[in-house]
TrEMBL record:
Gene Ontology annotations of biological process type: establishment of localization in cell; exploration behavior; locomotory behavior; long-term synaptic potentiation; negative regulation of receptor internalization; positive regulation of synapse assembly; protein localization to synapse; receptor internalization
Cellular component GO terms held in the UniProt record: endoplasmic reticulum; GABA-ergic synapse; growth cone; postsynaptic specialization membrane
Signal peptide as annotated in the record: 1-19
Record family assignment: Belongs to the LRRTM family.
Name recorded for this polypeptide: Leucine rich repeat transmembrane neuronal 1
Membrane topology: Single-pass type I membrane protein
Localization in the cell: Postsynaptic cell membrane
InterPro entries xrefs: Leu-rich_rpt, Leu-rich_rpt_typical-subtyp, LRR_dom_sf, SLRP
Ranges of compositional bias, category Low complexity: 406-441, 453-471
Primary localisation category: membrane
Span list, region Disordered: 377-441, 453-474
Record-linked PANTHER family: AGAP008170-PA (PTHR45712), LEUCINE-RICH REPEAT TRANSMEMBRANE NEURONAL PROTEIN 2 (PTHR45712:SF19)
Native organism: Macaca fascicularis (Crab-eating macaque)
Pfam families found in the cross-reference section: LRR_8
Length: 501
């Protein structure tokens, strides 16, 4: 065909001047990419896109040219040999995920200069040569997730200046080489989660000026130093969930624009007081499921832009050190999980932090909650009600009957080894408080939500009933805490005690 065209061109050039134009047109048509030479059997063709998926192929189809996209997903390819795709110079995307590829030669993607998207996820690749991506300088997206990569070649991503998305989740990577992303100046999303990273070098992420989202969750990092993320001026989201981080520090005084940080599920016991001053724009922070016992006031003061925070599942010490956190939570206008429970001291274990602070007056008096001084302060506060010679208990409609009680409730008894807090219960319907002796008026029940305080056996008075819609009246007594009805006033022979809730 080529010789025939050449002969015609020579004939027209010799006989007619207009033949020059025809020769030029013929040359242009010859330079156009050839159409696909036929759709392989069992594959699906859509114009210049070829889909050969789930066919148990062990090799890529041959004699393909002019394709713009090729999908070989869910097959049985085991290796990528040098020059295997050389005839696909027009290719713009290549999907090779969900195969059995364990070996990739350095020149496997030779002459695929136009490829912008490459997917190699869910294979068995253990290593990639330095030159793997060199023939594809126009790559925008690379997916290497769910393989068996143990190490990254130092220059693996060299020259990928247009790369914007890189997935390396769920491999066995133990170390990120220094400056491996130096040329990835356009990278915006990087996922190295679910690997085996134990530490980070100071310049592991150097050059990523446009990075906005970084995932490092489910690794083995034991320390977080914000100095490991230098000059990530565009980073908005950092995920370090489920590592083994024990301390969070910052050895560099610089400010970045981070808005979301997830440190949940670690082993954090200590955070430097100034660590969050480098992220003044932080809006969302997850610190749940760690080992924090208290938070420094300086840290709380640096949380000025927060709109959401999680703190549950820590080992909060409900002593004097919890006052700063309790005050901050009381004034916080954003969203936070309300399940902050005391881990110590023993008398407050399992109680809500804010409830414990209020009930034990931790932040109002200088005394310890277990001291006799605090018991005296609790039982003789002038704002709890006027003294009375005879006690009055609430009845239906708020018009009660009078009963003389000569002793305090058990959790305020001076004879008790440690005071117990009246816990917050669910909403109760109004009912008369048992008018029998104090010993029969109190019972110890499990955690207040869902429990019922009932008199001892033999008492003629019924226990307080819960509001309509409750499914059960009683629960077994497991944790010994007295429960009071909401908005109930208990009157003793000296002091009126009102439940604060």
């Amino acid at each position: 065909m080529d010789f025939l065209l050449l002969g015609l061109c020579l004939y027209w050039l010799l006989r007619r001047p207009s033949g020059v134009v025809l020769c030029l047109l013929g040359a242009c048509f010859q330079m156009l990419p050839a159409a696909p030479s036929g759709c392989p059997q069992l594959c699906r063709c859509e114009g210049r896109l070829l889909y050969c998926e789930a066919l148990n192929l062990t090799e890529a189809p041959h004699n393909l040219s002019g394709l713009l996209g090729l999908s070989l997903r869910y097959n049985s390819l085991s290796e990528l040999r040098a020059g295997q795709f050389t005839g696909l110079m027009q290719l713009t995307w290549l999907y090779l995920d969900h195969n059995h590829i364990c070996s990739v030669q350095g020149d496997a993607f030779q002459k695929l200069r136009r490829v912008k998207e490459l997917t190699l996820s869910s294979n068995q690749i253990t290593q990639l040569p330095n030159t793997t991506f060199r023939p594809m300088p126009n790559l925008r997206s690379v997916d290497l997730s769910y393989n068996k990569l143990q190490a990254l070649a130092p220059d693996l991503f060299h020259g990928l200046r247009k790369l914007t998305t890189l997935h390396m989740r769920a491999n066995a990577i133990q170390f990120v080489p220094v400056r491996i992303f130096q040329d990835c100046r356009s990278l915006k999303f990087l996922d190295i989660g679910y690997n085996q990273l134990k530490s980070l070098a100071r310049n592991s992420f150097a050059g990523l000026f446009k990075l906005t989202e970084l995932h490092l969750e489910h690794n083995d990092l034991v320390k977080v130093n914000f100095a490991h993320f230098p000059r990530l001026i565009s980073l908005h989201s950092l995920c370090l969930r489920r590592n083994k981080v024990a301390i969070v520090v910052s050895s560099l005084d610089w400010v970045w624009n981070l808005e979301k940080m997830d440190l949940s599920g670690n082993e954090i016991e200590y955070m430097e007081p100034h660590v969050f001053e480098t992220v003044p724009h932080l809006q969302s922070l997850q610190l749940d499921s760690n080992r924090l016992t208290y938070i420094e006031p300086r840290i709380l003061n640096s949380w000025k832009s927060l709109t959401s925070i999680t703190l549950a599942g820590n080992l909060w010490d409900c002593g004097r050190n919890v006052c700063a956190l309790a005050s901050w939570l009381s004034n916080f206008q954003g969203r936070y999980d309300g399940n902050l429970q005391c881990a110590s001291p023993e008398y407050a274990q399992g109680e809500d932090v804010l409830d414990a602070v209020y009930a034990f007056h931790l932040c109002e008096d200088g005394a310890e909650p277990t001291s006799g001084h605090l018991l005296s302060a609790v039982t003789n506060r002038s704002d709890l009600g006027p003294p009375a010679s005879s006690a009055t208990t609430l009845a239906d409609g708020g018009r009660g009957s009078t009963t003389a009680h000569s002793s305090l409730p058990p959790w305020l008894s001076p004879a008790a080894s440690t005071p117990r807090m009246p816990c917050r219960s669910t909403r109760w319907s109004r009912a008369p408080w048992p008018s029998s002796s104090p010993s029969s008026s109190w019972s110890w029940c499990s955690t207040c939500p869902g429990s019922v305080s009932q008199p001892a056996s033999g008492s003629s008075d019924s226990a307080l009933s819960r509001s309509a819609g409750s499914k059960s009246r009683n629960r077994p007594c497991i944790r010994w805490l007295p429960c009071l009805p909401r908005n109930t006033t208990l009157i003793t022979n000296r002091t009126t005690l009102r439940e604060p809730w």
